[in-house]
Amino acid sequence: MIVQSIKMAWEAITSNKMRSFLTMLGIIIGVMALVVLVSLVNGATGAVTSEITALGNDMVTVNIRDDKGSPMRLEDLDELAVLDAVGEAAPSGSMNATAKFGYSDVTVSLYGTTPAYYNVQGLHMKYGRFLKTADVENASYVTVLAYNTAEELFGKADVVGEQLTIGGRSFLVVGVLEEDTSLFASMIGGYSAYAPFTVESRMADEPYVTALSVSPGGNTDETESQVESFMLARFNQDEDAFRLMNMSSISDAMSTVTGTLSLLLGGIAAISLLVGGIGIMNIMLVSVTERTKEIGIRKAIGAGKKSIMMQFLIEALMVSLMGCLLGLALSWLILEVATVIAKTIAFSMSIGVVLLAVGFSSIIGLIFGLYPANKAANKHPIEALRYEG
Amino acid sequence: MSSESRPIITMTDITKVYTVGGEEVRALDGANLTIREGEFVSIIGPSGSGKSTLMNIIGCLDVADSGEYILDGQSIEQYSEEELARIRNKKIGFIFQNFNLLSRMSALANVELPLIYQRIHMGDRREQAAQALARVGLTDRSNHKPTELSGGQQQRVAIARALATNPAILLADEPTGNLDSKTGEDILALFHELHRAGNTIVLITHDPKIASQAQRRINIMDGRVTEVGA
Ligand SMILES: Nc1ncnc2c1ncn2[C@@H]1O[C@H](COP(=O)(O)OP(=O)(O)OP(=O)(O)O)[C@@H](O)[C@H]1O
Ligand SMILES: [Mg+2]
Asked: How far apart are CA A364 and CA A133, in angstroms?
């Protein structure tokens, strides 16, 4: 009987293709809204979250805003590094300077730091080496360049051993980092170079540590609280003296925001699906009236209430599900195009959102098909037969 | 011969009253009727005499207000709609004045329709429907839609649909009313053929010429049944 009802529904739907399509349109748009919006948000969130994880993994950064007359020195970082929840600690002084090689020049962010920075930030070398302890102790004019900085200045990446000037001083390139293809890098842009803390602090005329980053020795939350109490102790329990940031707390906050966002967008999409459902009900009611005679004939030759009910219910369900399918196909197309446009983010439909769309469409089809189907099933056979439309 | 065979329809004191605007219309007023297996009976009466009302009750599309109706050994009482539908499906083959075919479907699919509601499987259904179409001589029109058939052919398809389930009776309400006289005669010839093959046929008409073709003629007047001839 179900197979028959499906066949009958198919015949009814295909016998008036334009109308069926227009009826489906509400569902198509609703499903598209749901799937595309949720997938876009999920894709962006996924990309950003993985960026954050890749970027600073789980480091804790501290910015000192007010040293209270007892500024931090490079040596003070050793006290921090011995805390058991702290892996390594590295300063990160920064200044802007012009880097020159031959006739080309570029404004770089010059970071003054120590060898620990390499692990704390999770960097990778392409050529040469990172800064060494001796470079810091001797205040050697050596620098490590970001990949894009090397390319911009030298027109190539393998520039270890080359000499260039930064802020008017001559530096020896000892290493080049791997190319950073992440979304963050392309968003933030800019060129960076790394020099020994002692060199950069002299150039920037800032002998103290104003910013530092710490890698965890184990649990990141533990690290955060230990660093915080260390800093509080250092600055007379003044919370305003410094600011502590943790990448995982940033990504937590971010997923809360995007979670709310996808819920909101999903809600809007659900409303448009609901409107689509009302469209189905409307057309089904018209269809039931138009097909009164058919219902009468079917009843006369032996169709019971249940069969008629089933026929129209399945028809509503089928319109809804076909709309859903078309909506999914279009969503897939849109997401493919979005992926091409966004370049760095791959948008895809998750099984979850597909199931959600199918489930929601089925429920809509059933609920809004119920009333028309019931109306059809309850027609009196004699009156239905007498109907001339 | 016919008086010895088993009764298919037995009606005793059947009444059907419609109330329109506070006024009672006694569409059937104590009708008594017996139709036996294998009979070809015509029911004739003027407009408004209660023919269609009687046919609706015989065909289980409606139930009487009072009186007893036994169809094929089964007493039809206040059954639910679902049960009445099942009885119609099994025991009645309707043939209407305006054919009442589903225009979207082929002739074969129309004939299959009552078999679908009997939950007969595809293969058997096709075969049974094809046989019924063959009996009315329309095998070569199986895949035509009703709109591609003449009136007479459409009525043949309707007759095939009524025959397909092997019902206890064929119930025809003015089956030739929408046809020209030549085509009407062809349809009547088909009824005679089916009658000879053993089908029980009840033919409702207001045309005495058609009514007289039946083996037995029943008159209906103001909701009361009287028998003429024998
Ligand atoms: N649904 C109804 N509501 C009210 N009155 C009805 C209804 N159906 C039939 N009647 C009345 O019952 C009486 C018998 O009607 P019926 O349709 O049985 O007549 P008929 O013999 O079939 O007439 P015709 O030859 O014109 O088809 C008529 O007076 C009619 O007005
Ligand atoms: Mg009538």
From this structure: 67
